[in-house]
Structures are given as C-alpha cells and as structure tokens.
C-alpha cells in the first residue's frame, strides 16, 4: 500500500516545536518587544471571548480564562505552528455544553484528559497529515451548523428569558424558549443589539481597535450607570478567583472513564480538525509551514493540563491566530506572553468581571456565530454542484438537528461515495480490434479499483466473449487495488473457459504483485513487457 503521508521538508523534524526553531534562528530584544505587543493585543481579544465561550458552554467564565492561560501557553510553547494561538474555541460550545449537561463538570474533565491522551497518540502516529483530506463541503457544513447552534443557545440571554428547562437539542430548545416568552426583557434585548452594533461598527470603522474589550467595558459601565435590570455575571456565577485553582486529579474510575469516552472521541476529532485547520490558516497568511504531529502533541498536552485545573477545552483558535500574526508576532513567544497577560488580567480585574451583563456576552457570541457561518462559502458550494450541495446540506443538517460527530462522519462518508463514483468514471477503455478477428486489445488508463471494475466489468466481459487472445494494455494504468485485480482474475477465467488466453501488457512491478496475489500468475495469464512483443505470444 502506498504511504500517503508527505515527508517532512529536508532539514525539518516533524516533532520539533516551532519555539526551538525560532530560538535557533536568533531571537533578540526587538523580537521580544514585537511579541510582547502582539501578545498583549491577543490577550485583550481573548479576555472577553474566552469568558463568553465558557459561559455558553454551561460553565463559569473563570474556566475559559483558565483554558486560555494553560492551554494558550502550552500550545504555543510546544506546538508546531509559528503563530498559532490556543484557548477555548466556539466550535466546542456544542459538545462541551452537552457533556456538562449529561455527565457534569467532573465528567468533562475526564473527557478532556482522555482526549489529550488520544491527541498525543495521534501526533505520535503522524495522523495530523491526513486532516488535509477533510472535504471542503464537510468543513463548511459543520462550521455553519455550529454557528446556528451557538446563535440558538444565546437567544435566552439576548431576550432575557428564564425557561424552566433548556434542552440541548435545537428544536426542543426553541420550544422551551417560546414557552418562557412572557419573561421577555426589552432591556436585555437592547443591550445585546447595541453590543452587536458596536462590535461590528468598530471593526468596520476602526479595525485595529480592540472592539471586544472596548464594547465589553463600555456596555458594562452604561448598564451600571443607567441601572438597567439585566442579569450580570456575578448574579449567576458569583465572584471570580484571582488566580489559578490548585490542580485536582480527575475521577479515573471505570464508570467515569466509560461515560466520558464518547465525548472524548468527539473532542479529539473536532480538536484535531479545528487546531490543524487554524494552523493551516496561519500558514496561508504567513507563508510558513506548520508541523502537524507536534501540533497535535501540544494540543494533547495542553488539554491534559486543562483537565487538572478545571478548564473548558483548548485548541487552536482561528480569529486569535490571525490577530496574532496581524499584530506583528515573530513566533510562539507572543502566544506564551498572551497567556501570561490574561493571567495578569485575572489577578487584577477579577472583581470587576462580575459586573459584566450576560447580554453583552450573548451579543459577543452572536457575532462569533455570524463570523463562523461561512455564508459566502455556503452559497458557493450550493451553486458549485449537486454533489457538493448534498454533502454540505447533509453535514449541516445532522450537526444542527442530530449530533456534531455524526454530521462530520456522515458528511465524510458521503463525500467518499461521491469521490468513488467520480473516480469510477475516470477509467478509460480504448478498444483496438485490428486485422486479426481473434485478437482484441483493450487499453486501460486511469485508476482501476472496485468502483471502476463494477462500472466497466460488463463491457470487458462482452469484449472477451470470442477472441483467442484478449489483451489488456496496462502501461497507462495509474492505480490498481485488490478488488480491481480480483475482477480481472474472474475475467481471465471467463476467457479461458471460452478457449482463449488473457495477455497483460506493460504491467508495473507493484501492480503485478497485486495481480499475482489475486491469482493472475504466469500459469493463468501471459505477461508481456509491451505491445511490440505481442506477436511472440
């Protein structure tokens, strides 16, 4: 079997952190100043965003900060991307909130720990190289689906509702919110809408300003000054700690591990996809090349650490990674400093965070959902082809109404079927009967695998009905699998029963091994180097 894993570039170790590469290149005071400014910029963005993601996941805001501090530091220090910023990501809101609702916060820590171990194993096996095979319609479908779920999850805070119970599924959630409509708060809606408008307006008019921090602070002071009756962070979560908590070992009993395993598998799949796609985005804007194996190792190590300190889930975050590069980062040290800056903010600003309105965080997450929706790409794929549209809508629908992992797996499986169907039509058959009626030469080109064999097998059988010599010219055959070889072996038997002989011309050495394993030995068929030697048969 051909190894599809691309080799690492010459002189590059796939398991060497980018931090060591940057230090070996030479790192001076000017680079440190640039990284300090970039780290501060990203920390200002990460502070409100990480708290908002934690709250949307059904956890206290401090857990998002713990994730940013620990996960952000370790992913930058150990990772394989020069500009990657780690921390809580919006893509995990759905899975984390479902995990907390089903097995509790301690169960989440166990799932995060298991996922960290699995990510380290995936890095050791170099599985990160295969993320690039994830079909684009699947990526856009699950991103758009997550965006819808995030938006629906924030309706409660946007409208100031207090439903008796809030189911995890989208449709039951909407029904529960409708039943609680009498608790609608115009003040909460106004705060959310103004937050959204200010975030978008500042981003458009002053793109270099820290709109998240400015709007969070401004709206908090406005609500306090006007005395608006809206829910605050402190009303729901109490006072925030000033520092990281003491580490605590997750419950590793058999029952706890078994209950957490399905969520751990989901986190691992999504973490690998999200983190490596973020690293690819960083490559695209910087011209660098990330190292996926050590990147998965770093993400796994970060999540093991997060599980001991009660964080959310750490992965690469696209928006913060792009901000890091745009702010002038020189390498991973900016990501490490961003984590330390957030730690400083926690120590100093913890008492003030309790006064932030919940509606402000809801507005922030509505903007996150809008940015995740990939609207232009969604419409483009719908127009591109029926098959891409089918894959997109299948993934999107399953993510929104069923399950995130199910959506990704089914979307990938459907994309695989579409690919096999297209490839089965890529095999070319060219028949040459010539002057000898007892001889038919068929030129094969393209991939000959189980799909192509099923597509063209009947035609070959018709051609093999009468000739004494049935010749297959395989010099232009790109690929042959065991199913394709088995189909040819059955065809050779048919030719033999009719009193003829199959001749295989121009067979590549690797393909001949596959053929002989399927029973096409020199006793069953004739092998010739090329058609020029056909008359010797």
TrEMBL record:
<feature type="transmembrane region" description="Helical">
    <location>
        <begin position="133"/>
        <end position="155"/>
    </location>
</feature>
<keyword id="KW-0812">Transmembrane</keyword>
<feature type="transmembrane region" description="Helical">
    <location>
        <begin position="36"/>
        <end position="57"/>
    </location>
</feature>
<dbReference type="InterPro" id="IPR002645">
    <property type="entry name" value="STAS_dom"/>
</dbReference>
<feature type="transmembrane region" description="Helical">
    <location>
        <begin position="91"/>
        <end position="121"/>
    </location>
</feature>
<keyword id="KW-1133">Transmembrane helix</keyword>
<dbReference type="InterPro" id="IPR036513">
    <property type="entry name" value="STAS_dom_sf"/>
</dbReference>
<protein>
    <submittedName>
        <fullName>STAS domain-containing protein</fullName>
    </submittedName>
</protein>
<feature type="transmembrane region" description="Helical">
    <location>
        <begin position="339"/>
        <end position="370"/>
    </location>
</feature>
<dbReference type="InterPro" id="IPR011547">
    <property type="entry name" value="SLC26A/SulP_dom"/>
</dbReference>
<dbReference type="GO" id="GO:0016020">
    <property type="term" value="C:membrane"/>
</dbReference>
<feature type="transmembrane region" description="Helical">
    <location>
        <begin position="390"/>
        <end position="420"/>
    </location>
</feature>
<feature type="transmembrane region" description="Helical">
    <location>
        <begin position="300"/>
        <end position="319"/>
    </location>
</feature>
<dbReference type="Pfam" id="PF00916">
    <property type="entry name" value="Sulfate_transp"/>
</dbReference>
<dbReference type="InterPro" id="IPR001902">
    <property type="entry name" value="SLC26A/SulP_fam"/>
</dbReference>
<feature type="domain" description="STAS">
    <location>
        <begin position="429"/>
        <end position="537"/>
    </location>
</feature>
<dbReference type="Pfam" id="PF01740">
    <property type="entry name" value="STAS"/>
</dbReference>
<keyword id="KW-0472">Membrane</keyword>
<feature type="transmembrane region" description="Helical">
    <location>
        <begin position="212"/>
        <end position="234"/>
    </location>
</feature>
<feature type="transmembrane region" description="Helical">
    <location>
        <begin position="254"/>
        <end position="279"/>
    </location>
</feature>
<feature type="transmembrane region" description="Helical">
    <location>
        <begin position="183"/>
        <end position="200"/>
    </location>
</feature>
<feature type="transmembrane region" description="Helical">
    <location>
        <begin position="64"/>
        <end position="85"/>
    </location>
</feature>
<dbReference type="GO" id="GO:0055085">
    <property type="term" value="P:transmembrane transport"/>
</dbReference>
């Amino acid at each position: 079997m051909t190894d599809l894993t691309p080799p690492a570039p010459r002189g590059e170790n796939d398991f060497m952190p980018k931090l060591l590469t940057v230090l070996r290149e030479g790192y001076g005071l000017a680079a440190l100043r640039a990284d300090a400014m970039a780290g501060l910029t990203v920390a200002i963005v990460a502070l409100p965003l990480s708290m908002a993601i934690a709250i949307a996941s059904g956890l206290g805001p401090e857990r998002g900060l713990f994730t940013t501090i620990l996960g952000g530091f370790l992913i930058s220090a150990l990772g394989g991307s020069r500009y990657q910023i780690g921390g809580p990501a919006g893509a995990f809101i759905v899975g984390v909130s479902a995990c907390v609702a089903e097995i509790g916060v301690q169960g989440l820590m166990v799932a995060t720990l298991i996922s960290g171990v699995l990510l380290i194993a995936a890095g050791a096996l170099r599985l990160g190289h295969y993320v690039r095979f994830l079909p684009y319609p699947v990526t856009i479908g699950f991103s758009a689906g997550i965006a819808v779920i995030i938006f629906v999850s924030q309706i409660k805070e946007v409208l100031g509702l207090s439903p008796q119970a809030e189911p995890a599924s989208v449709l039951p959630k909407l029904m529960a919110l409708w039943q609680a409509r009498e608790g609608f708060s115009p003040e909460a809606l106004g705060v959310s809408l103004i937050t959204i408008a200010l975030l978008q307006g500042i981003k458009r008019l002053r793109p270099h300003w820290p709109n998240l921090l400015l709007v969070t602070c401004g709206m908090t002071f406005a609500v306090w000054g006007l005395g608006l009756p809206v829910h605050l962070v402190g009303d729901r979560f109490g006072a925030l700690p000033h520092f990281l908590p003491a580490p605590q070992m997750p419950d590793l009993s058999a029952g706890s591990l078994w209950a957490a395993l399905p969520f751990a598998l989901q986190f691992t799949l999504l973490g690998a996809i999200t983190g490596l796609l973020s690293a690819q985005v960083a490559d695209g804007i910087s011209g660098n090349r990330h190292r996926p194996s050590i990147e998965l190792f770093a993400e796994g190590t970060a999540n093991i650490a997060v599980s001991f300190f009660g964080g959310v889930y750490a992965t690469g975050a696209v928006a913060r990674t792009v901000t890091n590069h745009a702010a002038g980062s020189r390498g991973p040290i900016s990501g490490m400093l961003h984590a330390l800056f957030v730690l400083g903010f926690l120590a100093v600003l913890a008492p003030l965070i309790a006064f932030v309105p919940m509606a402000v965080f809801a507005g922030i997450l509505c903007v996150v959902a809008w940015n995740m929706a990939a609207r232009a790409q969604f419409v483009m794929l719908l127009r591109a082809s029926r098959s891409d549209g089918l894959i997109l809508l299948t993934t999107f629908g399953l993510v929104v109404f069923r399950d995130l992992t199910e959506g990704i797996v089914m979307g990938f499986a459907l994309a695989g079927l579409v690919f096999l169907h297209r490839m089965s039509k890529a095999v070319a058959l060219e028949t040459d009967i010539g002057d000898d009626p007892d001889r038919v030469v068929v030129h094969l080109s393209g991939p000959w695998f189980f799909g192509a064999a099923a597509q063209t097998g009947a035609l070959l059988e018709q051609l093999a009905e009468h000739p004494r010599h049935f010749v297959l010219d395989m010099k232009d055959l790109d690929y042959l699998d065991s199913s394709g070889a088995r189909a040819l072996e059955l065809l050779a038997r048919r030719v033999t029963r009719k009193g003829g002989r199959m001749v295989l011309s121009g067979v590549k050495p690797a393909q001949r091994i596959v053929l002989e394993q399927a029973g096409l030995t020199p006793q069953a068929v004739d092998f010739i180097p090329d058609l020029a030697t056909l008359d010797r048969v």
